């Protein structure tokens, strides 16, 4: 056995440094790594190790990893290897991702069924994670029934093994149930059109579904025929273009059209319609040569951006504070609209009307917003901070988004989430002057509104950052010692200079929001 293990690196190096070999040579390598007596799990592990050294040989590597999967799923002790093999293939392949997603899910299910009590929870969490990833891909392809079935299975398992995800599961199931209604309506309309292509009512309803509920104006444009209403014939082709490519004169009417659609739309669809209406009004306001039309567009823009959806109960769980800066609460007071009574105060910062939605807080590099120093804001092991920010150009080394700092000297439990010259980063102090830095996320561009989110999860030992509802970076083996026992949380300044620009909708949760919840929050708040 020692001889075989010793020979493994030699074989790999030979393949790396020699010209591409034939398929027969790859098969010879596979056979050379076969243990005696035959042990499929050990053979799969040997193959996966060999594949690690073949990054420059994608075809050979794929063949070996695929074989590792085939062998791994034959024995219970090989299931973890099969999972790693499927993950490797999923990361490497262009076409065929759906097939490998199914194989990964199958391997996770086998591993869960075979896991003993010591591993049952971790295996179940892995299966839930992959089931939800598969459900997301199915939903994106509008395979809603299959996505819903997978999500329901994951929800049943999560209730026992991953209770922290119960809110996410509830939100997912509600969303998929709504999307199924839309999908059923689309299929019904398509069936009516298949039976009678001149069914104008079904065609117009189908166009409306694609524009309003699916958000796919391009698909709606394909359905336009001369017999549909003049409004649809006019607006849908224009809406299929990028907003900046639409003449300013047409933007007012397009904004009104989207605003009217928003009145009957469900929350996420309504948020999307409102955001699109606002984009058209903004273009009309800034580009119209007619001052009256520009002033009217400005008034309508204020109405469109003032709308806020009610947060689902699931997204309110664990919410410690929410500063929306919409209403003036006094010269210094920042109203907490979460209902938790954690009002803040302006320290050198000020409220302005020109927010992303309603008002905002303007920061000049010296001022900040201070949350109250109260045990209600004590964070123990997990937190999520979300903020909409429009930063100005700056050459400062760091601009703080949010931080906890109790004195001039950093001490255990202090942290700062800041924008550097090239990236965003989370820095944590585990003791006096002993800091640790997470992996950095790309720096958001200046002059535009971005939704930024930081999730610190000690249970998973991870720090994750999101930009505009999408994962930007995840750093594992970092966050296990988070503790903010003496809160003094500030927004906008760590040291001179601080953040320069505008912030809106600052939210802090005492729990780690999932990637799905972050994306849903972004969409509900009008992200596009």
Which secondary structure elements does this structure contain, and how are they paired or packed?
Elements: H1 2-17, H2 23-32, H3 40-52, H4 58-72, H5 79-92, H6 97-114, H7 117-140, H8 144-161, H9 166-195, H10 200-214, H11 217-222, H12 230-239, H13 248-262, H14 267-287, H15 291-306, H16 313-316, E1 319-323, E2 333-334, E3 344-347, E4 350-352, E5 360-364, E6 368-370, E7 382-391, E8 398-404, E9 415-420, E10 423-431, E11 434-437, E12 441-442, E13 450-457, E14 462-467, E15 470-476, E16 489-491, E17 500-509, H17 515-524
Antiparallel strand pairs: 1-17, 2-3, 3-6, 4-5, 5-17, 6-16, 7-13, 7-17, 8-9, 8-16, 9-10, 10-11, 10-12, 13-14, 14-15
Helix pairs in contact: 2-4, 3-4, 3-5, 4-5, 5-6, 6-7, 7-8, 8-9, 9-10, 13-14, 14-15
Please explain how this structure is put together.
The structure is a single chain. Strands 2, 3, 6, 8, 9, 10, 11, 12 and 16 form a nine-stranded antiparallel sheet that branches. Strands 1, 4, 5, 7, 13, 14, 15 and 17 form an eight-stranded antiparallel sheet that branches. With 528 residues, the chain is α+β, with helices and mostly antiparallel strands. It has helices at residues 2-17, 23-32, 40-52, 58-72, 79-92, 97-114, 117-140, 144-161, 166-195, 200-214, 217-222, 230-239, 248-262, 267-287, 291-306, 313-316, 515-524; strands at residues 319-323, 333-334, 344-347, 350-352, 360-364, 368-370, 382-391, 398-404, 415-420, 423-431, 434-437, 441-442, 450-457, 462-467, 470-476, 489-491, 500-509. Mean pLDDT is 87; it is low at 1-21. Helix 2 (23-32) packs across helix 4 (58-72) and helix 14 packs antiparallel against helix 15.
């Amino acid at each position: 056995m020692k001889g075989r293990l010793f020979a493994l690196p030699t074989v790999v190096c030979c393949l790396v440094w020699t010209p591409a070999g034939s398929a027969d040579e790859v098969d010879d390598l596979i056979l050379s790594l076969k243990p005696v007596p035959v042990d499929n799990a050990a053979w799969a592990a040997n193959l996966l190790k060999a594949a690690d050294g073949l990054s420059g040989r994608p075809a050979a590597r794929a063949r070996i990893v695929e074989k590792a999967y085939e062998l791994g799923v034959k024995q219970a002790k090989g299931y973890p290897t099969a999972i790693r093999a499927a993950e490797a293939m999923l990361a490497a392949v262009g076409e065929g991702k759906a097939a490998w997603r199914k194989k990964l899910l199958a391997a996770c299910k086998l591993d869960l069924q075979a896991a003993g009590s010591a591993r049952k929870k971790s295996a179940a969490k892995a299966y839930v994670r992959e089931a939800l990833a598969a459900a997301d891909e199915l939903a994106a392809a509008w395979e809603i029934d299959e996505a819903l079935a997978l999500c329901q299975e994951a929800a049943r398992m999560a209730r026992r093994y991953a209770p922290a995800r119960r809110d996410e599961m509830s939100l997912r199931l509600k969303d998929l149930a709504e999307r199924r209604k839309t999908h059923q309506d689309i299929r019904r309309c398509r069936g009516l059109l298949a039976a009678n292509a001149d069914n104008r009512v079904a065609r117009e309803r189908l166009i409306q579904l694609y524009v309003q509920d699916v958000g796919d104006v391009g698909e709606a444009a394909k359905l336009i025929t001369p017999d549909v209403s003049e409004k649809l014939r006019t607006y849908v082709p224009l809406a299929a273009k990028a907003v900046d490519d639409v003449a300013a004169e047409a933007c007012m009417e397009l904004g009104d059209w989207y605003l009217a659609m928003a009145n009957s739309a469900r929350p996420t669809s309504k948020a999307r319609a409102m955001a699109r209406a606002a984009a058209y009004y903004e273009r009309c306001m800034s580009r119209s040569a007619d001052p009256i039309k520009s002033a009217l567009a400005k008034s309508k823009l204020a109405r469109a951006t003032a709308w806020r959806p009610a947060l689902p109960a699931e997204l309110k769980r664990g919410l410690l504070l929410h500063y929306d800066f919409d209403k003036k609460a006094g010269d210094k007071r920042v109203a907490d609209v979460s209902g938790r009574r954690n009002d803040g105060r302006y320290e050198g910062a000020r409220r302005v009307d020109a927010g992303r939605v309603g008002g905002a807080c303007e920061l000049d590099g010296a001022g900040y917003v201070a949350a109250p120093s109260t045990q209600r804001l004590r964070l123990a092991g997990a937190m999520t901070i979300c903020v909409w920010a429009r930063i100005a150009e700056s050459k400062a080394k760091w601009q703080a988004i949010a931080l906890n700092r109790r004195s001039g000297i950093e001490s255990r439990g202090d942290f700062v989430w800041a924008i550097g010259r090239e990236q965003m980063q989370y820095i944590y102090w585990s003791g006096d002057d002993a800091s640790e830095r997470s992996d950095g996320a790309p720096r958001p561009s200046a002059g535009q509104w971005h939704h930024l989110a930081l999730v610190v999860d000690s249970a998973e030992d991870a720090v994750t950052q999101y930009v505009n509802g999408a994962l930007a970076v995840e750093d594992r083996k970092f966050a296990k010692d988070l503790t903010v026992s003496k809160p003094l949380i500030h927004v906008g300044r760590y040291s001179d200079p601080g953040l320069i620009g505008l912030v809106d909708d600052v939210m802090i949760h005492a729990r780690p929001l999932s990637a799905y919840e972050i994306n849903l929050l972004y969409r509900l708040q009008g992200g596009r």
